[in-house]
Amino acid sequence: MSIIQQVTTASLSDNWRTINIDLLDPESSSNFDTSTLHPPLVPVSDDEIRTLGQQIRQLMRGGDAEGALRGALEMPPYGGSDAVKELHAETVILVLQSIKASEMTPILKRIFQTDGGSEALDALMKYLYKGMAASSSHSPSRSSAISPQSTGAGFSQMGGRPAVASESSTMSVLLSWHEKVVDVAGLGCVGRCMTDWRKV
Amino acid sequence: MASPEVHHLFHHPIADHSFSADKQTLAVARDTSVELYGRTGSGFKLKDELKGHDKTVTSVDIALNSGRIVTCSQDRNALVWEPSPTGYKPTLVLLRINRAATFVRWSPSETKFAVGSGARVIAICYFEEENDWWVSKHIKKPIRSTITTVAWHPNSVLLAAGSTDAHARVFSSFIKGVDARPEPGVWGERLPFNTVCGEYLNNSSGWVHAVSFSPSGDALAFAAHDSSITVVYPNGADQPPRAVISVNTQLLPFMSLIWNGESEIIAAGYDCEAYRFKGGEGGWQLTGSLESKGRPGLGDAREESAFNMFKQMDLKGKTKDDTQLKTVHQNTINTIRIYEGSGGTVRKFSSSGVDGRIVIWNA
Description:
The complex is a heterodimer of chains A (200) and B (363). Helices cover 66% and strands 0% of the residues of chain A. Chain A has 200 residues and is mainly alpha-helical. In chain A, α2 packs antiparallel against α3, α3 runs antiparallel to α4 and α5 runs antiparallel to α6. Chain B has a four-stranded antiparallel sheet, with no helix packed on it. A four-stranded antiparallel sheet of chain B has the order 2-3-4-5, with no helix packed on it. In chain B, strands 6-7-8-9 form a four-stranded antiparallel sheet, with no helix packed on it. At the A-B interface, α6 and α8 of A face loops of B.
């Protein structure tokens, strides 16, 4: 093999494209911790969120769905571990399922008009998206038992199946809440969900 | 209230626009060139084209007194266009950045300009007489991401900048020999170059699209991608601010904002229309749109003979033509600027957007 050929094959190979040049630049944006960009979040322990969950369930049993929803959205555990967040998301979705469709808009309007109501609805919107993400990420794993071909084909096809009936009912609850929240808090609310670094 | 003056220049996005002091010349950033329009009667006519950049021009600004035009582009360069009897002469400015230049504005003194960039620096450029050359100094720390927008304080020393790291910051751009030493104020007392006088973040923290000092310079407003505007009232050097007021709206995000006096802000963006905010240190509120909806002469007025209705049904399969927005701008508004005003109050302002329209509004 002549030298010229070697040079050409070396320069034709696109290995250099895969070099991460950011690692070589000490001032690169990938070389700092993005969590330093915002103030640290308050940590929330497992016990605290369990007690809160209990209180909220109590309110629900007492028939005060609005109070339960308000309580659940007031202090979302932004600084908690994944398990804590999961636990609280379950509580919120339980509350959402307990509220009748005709009650949704009046409750949302009342919450929106109070102090910090816009923040609460932003938090609610985050839980709606989290709920939808959770139920759609479950479905491929379950569906693989039934039909291996449909990988992540989307939840819409799974909806009719009896195995995921409860899931699809959760989804329809979440979707109708989504519609109502957008009616009250506007599209700005969806935008804030996307930009916010405080994840639920 | 008189209706706004609408000029539809072309079917192409306008990245930025700027009027000369006498309002006879309009500079518009279109693709890789800047087009200069001259006023002829009630309209604008293309009279010159400034070609010098080879990538998209991101920003343009005309200095009100000297008439010099500064442009910057994704090709990482800024050009200063000097007016001369034979046309505009470009001078290249060495920005020393390795990413696109995103935003440029002349300081009120017109001796400096600031260029924001994707290289996480702001280049402060000034003219060095002995070398006959524009040179730049970088503001680097603590910027962590692309600078999307900058705005000058009336004293030409302080500079506000918004960034995609969700912070709005206030820096000192003091340059010895160019600037007079600034009076101590609410933003700080000693202000050497690159002093960080303030760093602000709101709760839901979106990219900052627009920043602006109030006419007195004692308050700062910024609009972010979380559909909010935030107003900051500082309280002197190293003190926490007196008040930081954030207004979350139900609307789509704002791309640009201006102050009208100390108690009113006009902001516009993805909703294709301008909105008014009112307030002060105690709190701010969205008071509504500047457009009166369903204005006569736009669609709704031709409401509807039976003949017309059937004709529409025959032609389009529907009776209502809903391809037009009800707003004057038919797409996102990128920039709003003060067109006419005095002492901090705005009488008229101009807006430009993705739809290729320039609109002059009564504030």
